[in-house]
């Protein structure tokens, strides 16, 4: 092998070595990012499983109770309004629908 071939071989190897180093560096960076994402997903899954085990949020249960109480009151008022409207229609001989 002549010196000229040797120099050409080294010149050809320099970008290949730098390219391989770049690929290796990118791979290592990606591995770190994947591990970080995996940890985040595991943390989210743990918190989600804890969340799903709770029967209801305490504030949600209180709000639902409050809504049911108010809904019951509204239904009673609506019934009285319908009765009053029926009485008004009957007293005035109006055709109410």
Q: Termini distance?
A: 108 Å
What series of H and E elements makes up the topology? Answer: HH
Number of domains: 2
Q: Biggest sheet: strands, sense, closure?
A: none
Overall strand count: 0
Mean pLDDT reading: 86
> Treating each run of at least 4 consecutive H or I residues as one helix, how many helices?
2
What is the strand content?
under 5%
Overall SS class:
mainly alpha
Helix content: over 70%
Radius of gyration: 38 Å
Sequence stretches where pLDDT stays below 50 over 5 or more residues:
none
Question: What is the molecular shape?
Answer: rod-shaped
Q: Would you give an account of this structure?
A:
The chain has 97 residues and is an all-alpha fold. It has 2 domains: 1-54; 67-97. The protein has 2 helices and no strands. It has helices at residues 3-53, 58-92. It is rod-shaped and about 120 Å long. The N and C termini lie far apart (108 Å). The model has no long low-confidence stretch (mean pLDDT 86).
């Amino acid at each position: 092998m002549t010196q000229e071939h040797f120099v050409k071989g080294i010149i050809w190897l320099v970008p290949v070595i730098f390219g391989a180093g770049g690929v290796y560096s990118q791979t290592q960076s990606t591995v770190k990012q994947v591990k970080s994402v995996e940890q985040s997903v595991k943390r989210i899954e743990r918190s989600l499983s804890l969340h799903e085990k709770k029967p209801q949020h305490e504030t949600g249960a209180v709000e639902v109770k409050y809504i049911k109480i108010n809904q019951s009151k509204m239904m009673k008022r609506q019934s009285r309004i319908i009765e009053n409207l029926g009485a008004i229609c009957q007293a005035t001989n109006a055709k109410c629908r």
